[in-house]
Each structure stands twice: as structure tokens, then as C-alpha cells.
Design a protein that fits this description.
743 residues; globular; 29 helices; six-stranded parallel β-sheet; alpha/beta
Length: 743
């Protein structure tokens, strides 16, 4: 590829051009001596001209030519220009063409360029017969992948496989200086995050816009609760929209300056700590700049149009989305998205954003925010600079243990040379022993009566001998703090709770804001004062080969290795009956799934839940297998990894399935899925909004309406939707690198 001339075809729209840019940058990075020419329409020309990897940008004036031909005034002049345009392409003698656009007009340009190598997508991945014009056709491994990944896949046509790419976007100096003047005049030095909100879209895609009054309320909350500086950015024809949003606000906000190009808009996003907006071109620019994003999806597909980098997707599942109905008047998919949904996503992003934000509790020198009767001394810098031995008191439940995995991984990332020890109940020890970020596991028996005191004294003596420098207490119970207190560890970090403040040296307040976030983020906040980690890993269980072999042999014994659909069910809940859906409804659901999908239902649970399993099996007859009480935790995880889907109440098994990559349909009643729901994309929560939920009670004191209102039809519809997506493929599994992939 040395010295070759390459033509890139991605004519429009702005968002699609931006999504193609990383692939072109990767091409130039691997073949730096090649000359790259890009044909594009007017809205994206200035954007591409500022990118150093692109040697030439050719304007394709399609709209002007089309107007002239329709008006019949300059039809011959337009035709003459087209002929001259084609001749100009052929004179450049391109060695190859990469057709990222994949439609008729780009296919015609590919052929007319005269290039001997025309690389494009195959019949399934292109439109309007485009594949006829390519002589090197690339087949996508999966049609339902992000547009960024699709563009990277086309590079396989030149023998290039992109596995790791660092995004970037070049902004001209003059545009940086222009925006710098705005920041200097409008934004004084503040210890607060800067949030850019871009509520507009192009006129043709107004159906993707969230409601203006919702943006007003959201901005008010961002200013009031996060002490943020909110900047509203806008493009051509969007000024009235933005000014209307500002008029609906009660708190102050800033109107972004008028911008002559997308690169000026990009500089605002680059200097922001967070971008909030819809599925638009500016959102993808922020993505390439590495700015964290909260993207609001309505009718479009969040998989196909996923941004790069740190982001949160806010979307509501309705029966008709995704779609491309530009004339939709209902916009139910957008109206169902609440201000609270978007605010929580923004709050979570700011909690895990690796970019330091002044005024938020981040960075190695940050101090723990406390609200106590007496003033606590800050954590000494010497103590957090290089602690040699760290103790983490683990939580007491299976599900919560899995949700703390990212916190432990983050702690090890902040202090990679420390010896990290987990103190956990004995029944959870096996979950920790396979977790590679833990150096040592100390377990204890949970005892009742006076026996627990003798156990704690024995344990404290053992812990004191290990001379820990620092302890993080994940549970909020008095007993967990008491255990660590007895060990005389000099720095003890944990959440404040009534009655245990004297047991910890550095307490973090459990404010309303903290109590509303997901438990993964709730636990993660405990290590914020100690430093930060790059990225935010999902909870993941690391299975041993012996556990996978056990699952293989067990399925072989049950004659379930013939490729049939395996659906797991967990009808119980250790916490209490308030979390449980009716076993008869589980049974009817299993009968329908078994009949319609030719599936085998595997029943999971504890020993004491076997009567419940037997009642369900009466509905299933030959279509079910009872595994309740017959697996250890890692064996359970290995079997769930082989399932296509798990249907469950809010249980630890739910989090086990999510942590091995198996999709979950979770039935929620008395608890809140926003705080304890399955973590990650691709899971479905079925819940009814009733006045008394969430109550978090173990046993319902009234009529259990939160669960009784959920019908078999509703859960069956969710199961069917998920199985149709999987299309009979085996469950998703973790590979040795820790990434999720379809098995």
C-alpha cells in the first residue's frame, strides 16, 4: 500500500461521516505514505478539511445539481459539471476505492472513478444494488453491530484488522481561539463541571428530539443539584428551540456562541465534562473527542448508533421502536423518558468519569465528604500514596458481592502493588477466590448469640497480626464496622450509618443522591477519595476450567448438548417472599416457552425452594429439569453461562447470570431496578408501577399487588423478544480477555 492513492466514499450525513472518520484515521495510521481523498457533500466538508489524515476533500454538490436539473434552467450546465467531475476523478488515477456509503450513487461513483480495486459491502450489508459495483466484497460477521464497527470491518478488504484504536478529532487553532474567547468572557473560573446540552437535530430528523420542557427541567436539576455550568449549544435553525428551553428554566444557564462550523462546536464539547443530547452528528463529535456522553435514544437503534468511549444510553422500550418513521406524531418512545432517567445517567457518568472535574470528589488528593457531629481528620497523603496492605470487608449477599467486583478491580488499579485481602462470610469465599484482583481471602462463620463475639475476637487477633494500613468497609451494618474496628486498622473508610460513626475514621454520607444510584456505583463511591481508575469494568465472574467441565458433563448427563434452547428460571428469593412471582405463573410461562421455542427449562434455587420447583415441574412435564440445591455458586455460574436466557426474580442468581454474559428477564416488585437491577445492556426488567413500590419489605403486609399485576403474557412477550434477538444462539460468554462475546 506504499504511496497508493485511495478514494473514500461516504457522502453524507454528518453523523455518518463522523462515524467513518475513525476507520479512515486507522487506515492512514497503518499506511502513512498513502494519499487519501474523500468525496463528501457540503455540510461535512469543513469538518474533513481540518483532519490532517485526509490529503484532499472533493465537494460533491449533489443538491445543487439536482435543483438545477429539476428547474430545467441550467440542466445542460449541470450535466457538463458532472462530466467534468467524473473526468477529474479519473485523472487522479486512484489505486482503490473504499465505499463506506453502500448505496447506488456511491456505487456509481466507485465505478466511474476508474479505480481497479473497488471495495464495498456484500449484498446483505449494502443497499440499492450497491454490491454490483464492488469487485472486493466484505461480509459482516453480524448485521446488528455499531456503525463504527461496521466501518472498521470494511478495512478487512485491504487486509487490515483494527483491534485497538484511539479516537481523535483535530480542531483548527482559529476555532479554538474563537471558543476560548467565549469561555473567558462567559465562564469565570469555577469549581464545577461544565455540561454541554445539544437539544437540536437536523430538520429532517426532528422525530429524534426529546421534549423541550424536559430539557428545561433537566438543566435546572443539573445546576441545582450538581452545581454544574450548563451550556446550550445549537446549529442552524435551532436558536429559537434553545432560547425557548432557557425561558422555561428557573436556574441560570449559558447560550453557546454562534458557530460557523462543526469544528467550533467541537471545541465547546472538548472543554466540557459531559455532553447530553440525542442521536445526532454533534453527539458523535463529542464521542471522538473523548467527552463522556449521555445520549437520549427514541426511535433509533442504540446498538447501530452507539457512540465510542464513556457513555450512558437512555432509552425506553416500546412496541414500535426502533423505527424510522419520520412522520410519527405520538413519539411515545421519547415522551416516556423522564427527567429523572437522564439526570441519573448524567450523575453516574460524573461519578465514574476518569477526567478530573474540579469540585467533585475525585483524584488521589481528594478528601472524603462527611457529615458528622465531630470533624474527622482528612486521609493522610502518606497513607494513600502507597498502602502496602489493604483489607476490604466484603458484603454478605451473593448478588451484592458481584456488584462490588468493579470496586475491588478499581482499588487494585489505583494501588497495583498493594496486597489486597477480602474479609467475607464463608459461603461467599469461592466467589472471591477466583477473582484475580484479590491476593488473599479470609472468611468467617456467621454465628448467632454470644458466639459471634468470640468469633469476632478470634478474627480480630488474626487481622491485627497482618498489620493492614487501610480498610474499606462495603456493608453499612454495625457488625461489619465492629469487626474492622477490633483489628485496629488506622484508616477505616465506610458509609456513615446511625450508631457506627465512632467505629470508622473516615465516613461518607449516605445522602438521598447516593441512595438513588445503582449499587455498582454506590459501592464504587467508597473508593473515590483514594484515586481513580481508567474506564469502568462491568461485574464479571471468572470461571475455572473445572467448573465449565462440570457444567459440560452435567448437561451431557441430562442429554442437553444437542443445541436446544436452554432457559434458566429462578423462582425463589433468599431475601423474602415479597420478591417472588407466583410459582404457578412461572410454571405456565415455562410450559409456553418449552412448547413454542422447543426449549428446556432449568430450575435453579436453594434447597428450601425445592417444593416451589416441584410445583413448577407439574406444568412443564418433560420440558423441565430441577437443579435447585444441586450446584455450588461457581457451578451455578457455569450452567448459567450455557443458558440462552434466565427468567428470575430480583435475586443473586440474576446478578450471577449478568456477570457471565447471559441475558436476563427480571421480574421486579418490592425492590427498585434502578438500584438493584441487572447491570449491563441487553437485559429486560418487567415491573408494574404501584403506589407502595418499592418498599423493600421481606414479606408483603398487604395484597402483593406489585407482583400479582404482572401477567404471564407480559413476561412471555419479554422472553420471546429476547430469544428472537438471540435467534437460537448459545448464551454469551466471557473470553479469556474479559470481553463479552457471543458463543
Amino acid at each position: 500500500m506504499r504511496g497508493q492513492r485511495i478514494l473514500i466514499l461516504r457522502l453524507s450525513a454528518v453523523g455518518d461521516v463522523i462515524r467513518t472518520l475513525p476507520a479512515v484515521k486507522a487506515l492512514k495510521e497503518h499506511y502513512p505514505s498513502s494519499s487519501i481523498t474523500w468525496i463528501v457533500e457540503e455540510p461535512s466538508r469543513a469538518l474533513l478539511e481540518s483532519q490532517p489524515e485526509i490529503d484532499e476533500v472533493i465537494l460533491f454538490p449533489r443538491r445543487r445539481w439536482a435543483g438545477e436539473i429539476r428547474s430545467a434552467r441550467r440542466i445542460w450546465g449541470a450535466i457538463g459539471e458532472m462530466v467534468g467531475f467524473i473526468k477529474g476523478l479519473r485523472r487522479r488515477r486512484f489505486d482503490m476505492v473504499l465505499d463506506f456509503h453502500g448505496i447506488l450513487k456511491s456505487g456509481l461513483l466507485s465505478v466511474l472513478s476508474g479505480s481497479p480495486r473497488r471495495i464495498g459491502f456484500d449484498r446483505r450489508s449494502s443497499k440499492e444494488g450497491n454490491f454490483f459495483f464492488s469487485n472486493i466484497k466484505v461480509t459482516l460477521p453480524d448485521l446488528h453491530i455499531s456503525r463504527f464497527q461496521k466501518n472498521f470491518e470494511l478495512l478487512r478488504g485491504v487486509g487490515l484488522e483494527v483491534k485497538d484504536f484511539k479516537s481523535g478529532f483535530c480542531i483548527p487553532v482559529k476555532d479554538r481561539e474563537y471558543i476560548n474567547q467565549f469561555f473567558n468572557s462567559a465562564i469565570p473560573p469555577l469549581r464545577r463541571p461544565i455540561i454541554s446540552i445539544h437539544p437540536g437535530t437536523s430538520p429532517k430528523t426532528c422525530f429524534k428530539r426529546w421534549m423541550p420542557d424536559q430539557y428545561s427541567q433537566l438543566a435546572d436539576r443539573l445546576v441545582r443539584q450538581l452545581k454544574a455550568t450548563v451550556i446550550f449549544t445549537w446549529g442552524p435553525g435551532e436558536l429559537d428551540l434553545v432560547e425557548g428551553i432557557q425561558r422555561g428554566m428557573k436556574e441560570p444557564s449559558l447560550l453557546g456562541p454562534p458557530t460557523e462550523s462543526l469544528t467550533q462546536l467541537a471545541e465547546i464539547f472538548r472543554r466540557s465534562h459531559l455532553f447530553i443530547g440525542g442521536d445526532t452528528g454533534p453527539m458523535y463529535i463529542a464521542s471522538l473527542l473523548g467527552t463522556p456522553i449521555v445520549v437520549i435514544y427514541g426511535p433509533t437503534d442504540p446498538v447501530l448508533y452507539e457512540p465510542l468511549g464513556l457513555h450512558k444510553k437512555v432509552r425506553k422500550e416500546v412496541g414500535c421502536n426502533p423505527c424510522r418513521n419520520r412522520s410519527c406524531r405520538e413519539l411515545t418512545c421519547l415522551k416516556m423518558i423522564t427527567v429523572d432517567d437522564v439526570f441519573r445517567a448524567a450523575e453516574e457518568i460524573l461519578c465514574v468519569n476518569p477526567q478530573p472535574i474540579p469540585g467533585l470528589r475525585q483524584g488521589r488528593r481528594a478528601r472524603v465528604e462527611v457529615q458528622r457531629r465531630r470533624t474527622l481528620k482528612p486521609i493522610p497523603n502518606s497513607a494513600i500514596a502507597s498502602p502496602r496492605r489493604i483489607l476490604v470487608r466484603g458484603v454478605n449477599w451473593v448478588g451484592d458481592t458481584i456488584l462490588t467486583y468493579p470496586t475491588i478491580q478499581g482499588l487494585k488499579a489505583i494501588f497495583p502493588d498493594c496486597h489486597l485481602t477480602i474479609l467475607a462470610p464463608s459461603h461467599l469465599a469461592e466467589l472471591w477466590r477466583t477473582f484475580p484482583y484479590v491476593d488473599e481471602v479470609i472468611h468467617f462463620q456467621k454465628r448467632k448469640g454470644i458466639g459471634f463475639l468470640w468469633e469476632d475476637l478470634r478474627l480480630a487477633s488474626s487481622l491485627r497480626e497482618k498489620r493492614f494500613d487501610l480498610a474499606v468497609i462495603l456493608p453499612r451494618s454495625f457488625h461489619s464496622a465492629f469487626q474492622v474496628y477490633l483489628a485496629r486498622i488506622p484508616i477505616r473508610i465506610g458509609y456513615q450509618n446511625r450508631g457506627r460513626s465512632f467505629l470508622i475514621t473516615h465516613g461518607i454520607s449516605r445522602t438521598e443522591e447516593v441512595l438513588r444510584i445503582h449499587r455498582v456505583l454506590y459501592y464504587r463511591r467508597l473508593i473515590d477519595p483514594l484515586g481513580r481508575m481508567d474506564g469502568f469494568p462491568p461485574p464479571r465472574i471468572f470461571l475455572r476450567d473445572e467448573d465449565r467441565r462440570w457444567a459440560e458433563e452435567r448437561l451431557k448427563e441430562m442429554r442437553l448438548l444437542d443445541g436446544r434452547v436452554l432457559v434458566g428460571m429462578n423462582p425463589g428469593a433468599a431475601y423474602g417472599s415479597a420478591k417472588c412471582w407466583d410459582p404457578d405463573r412461572f410454571g405456565e410461562l415455562g410450559r409456553r416457552v418449552s412448547s413454542k421455542w422447543k426449549a428446556t427449562v432449568l430450575l435453579f434455587g436453594r434447597d428450601e425452594e425445592r417444593p416451589m420447583a416441584r410445583a413448577i415441574l407439574q406444568h412443564l412435564k418433560e420440558g423441565g429439569t430441577d437443579l435447585t440445591g444441586r450446584t455450588g455458586l461457581l457451578q451455578l455460574a457455569a450452567l448459567l453461562e450455557r443458558c440462552h436466557l434466565l427468567v428470575t426474580n430480583d435475586t443473586g442468581t440474576m446478578h450471577v447470570a449478568a456477570a457471565v454474559g447471559t441475558p436476563v428477564v427480571a421480574i421486579f416488585g418490592s425492590t427498585d431496578p434502578l438500584t438493584t437491577g441487572p447491570w449491563g445492556e441487553g437485559n429486560i426488567v418487567v415491573k408494574k408501577d404501584v403506589s407502595c413500590s418499592p418498599c423493600s419489605k421481606r414479606i408483603c403486609p398487604t395484597d402483593h399487588r406489585c407482583m400479582k399485576l404482572i401477567t404471564v403474557d407480559e413476561v412471555e412477550e419479554a422472553v420471546g423478544r429476547k430469544l428472537r434477538e438471540l435467534d437460537g444462539r448459545p448464551g454469551t460468554m466471557n473470553d479469556e480477555r474479559g470481553t463479552m462475546n457471543d458463543g
